Structure formats: structure tokens, C-alpha cells
Amino acid sequence: MKIEASGTETDVDVAVIGGGVNGTGVARDCALRGLRVALFERNDLAFGASGNSSGMIHGGPRYLTYDPDVTYTSCLDSGHIQHIAPHLLFRIPFLTPVHAGPFARPTLEGYDAFFALYDKYQPLKRGKPHVRLSAKEILELEPGLKGDIYGGITFDEWGIDGARLCVGNAIDAMENAASVRLHTTVTQILLRDDGRVRGVAYRKRDTGEHGVCTAKLVVNATGAWAPITATLGGLEAKTARVRPGKGIHVMFDRRLTNYAIVAQAIDGRQVFL
User: Residues 97, 261: contact at Cβ < 8 Å?
Assistant: First the structure.
């Protein structure tokens, strides 16, 4: 299937800028509702974070203590994705070991209480409840763990192929009459005299061809580039409240563990294998 629309000017209901999981998801959802949609991506689908993440669809347990609404919506969204694209998901059981020491018991009790609360959200994403394990049980599951293990817990999350989800969203949107234009840069967000958007101007990167797409609504779904995209419509970059975060992924040619292991680096930051 060729992912490109013909013509240099179109008239749609919604113009979406960005071909990541949010942009393609918005395009798909709008197209399914019968809206006329055009999506523009300056590179390829899943070029940014959507194709370069850890591939986790977690329920947001870290937000549970200070913003449980985020945990709720994260678990709810995970459940929606399972209905939409079950063939792209796989279960990831996590193991959090606690090493022996003067604070081992209260640490394990704290983990146990915390994940008992998280268990209340698990049905939203078909997750299994956490399990508290002894040192013997943990070492039976992960005999390669080093150090003096006191105990630990397991909890349940999901993983997904983010790039395939973007492609699936785009194809589904196209099958419902959406236009998806790759390698096409939006050069300006066009405004009416009253300040409302009226569409976008774009340029095809391969041919240099320019065009205009009029739209009733423009969606900025460019992720870390959202502040830059906002300036195309005359807004200040700070109006797009996006806080980029850095992460490091180390790729191995084989599976290292039976479970995903949650641990702390020597500088105190949390990591997982």
C-alpha cells in the first residue's frame, strides 16, 4: 500500500502533524468517526519516541502516590490498546528484589502495600495481581541474581511493538479514507484573520513540491518537537508544555533474564532489564 495522497491542495476536517503513536492514533480515531483527515510526517512513521522507546504500555505505578488519576488513565489506555491491537502486545512480568540489610523488611512491606494498591487498577488492563516472594522463591525464578536477597515482589505489565502500532493505525486510517503523507514537512500553520487555524502549508521533501491543506482543526502531535511546531502557528514555544526526557537502551543479542528485573544503578537511578 502506497502511503501518500495525490494533489497539492486538500480540504479536510482535521490535519494531524506527526506520525507517531499519538498522531496516527488521532488520525485513525477521527477517520473511523467519518471525519476527513490528513496526516503529515516529515520523516517516516514512528521516527521519534514511538519507534525508539522501551516498548512499555505500563499502568503508571510511579504516579500512584501523587497523581493516581494518571495511573487510572494509563491503565485504561492500556486496556483500550489491548482491544484495538491484541496481536501486538505481550505480557511482561516484573520482579523487584529486595536485598538483605537493616531496612530490608520495611522496604519489602512498603513494596507489598504499594502494589496492593496498584492491584486495584490492574483489571483495567487485564493485569495480574502482584505476588510477594521469599528469597528462595526469587532465586528459583532468577538464579543469576547476585547479592544477599531478602525477598521481593512481582507485578504485571505489557509491552508492544510501537512502530507496528503506528503503521497499523495509519493503514486503518487510510482504509477509512484518511490521507497519510510521509516525508512531507509542514512549513506553516495557517491562520484566519480572527486567529483561528485554517489549515497548513507543506512541502514534499523528495520533490520540493509545495501545497496547502485547509482544515477546521490542526492537531500538533509532534512529541518532543511540539514546541517548535507550535511556533509555526505564531505561538510561543512554551505554550506547548512538553518536557522531553532522556533514556538509554542497551540492546543484547539474547534474553538475559526470565523476568524484567527492577534495580537501582550505582547513582540511585532506577533501571530495568
Answer: yes
- Which grid coordinates belong to 220? 500538533
* 138: enclosing H helix or E strand: helix 135-141
Q: Which amino acid is at 50?
A: S
Backbone angles phi, psi at 196, to 5 degrees: -80, 150
Q: For cell 517548535, name the residue.
A: 228
Tens-level pLDDT at each residue, the chain (273 residues): 445 544 445 899 999 999 999 999 999 999 999 999 999 999 999 999 899 888 888 899 989 999 999 999 999 999 999 999 999 999 999 999 999 999 999 999 999 999 999 999 999 999 999 999 999 999 999 999 988 999 999 999 999 999 999 999 999 999 999 999 999 999 999 999 999 999 999 999 999 999 999 999 999 999 999 999 999 998 888 888 777 777 788 888 888 899 999 887 788 777 888
What domains appear along the chain, each with residue ranges and CATH number?
A: 9-52+162-239 (3.50.50.60), 68-160+248-272 (no CATH)
C-alpha cell at 16: 494531524
| Residue whose C-alpha cell is 512538553 | 242
* Whole-number Å distance between alpha carbons of 270 and 122: 22
Neighbour order of strands in the sheet with 131-134: 131-134, 149-160, 89-99, 260-264, 270-272
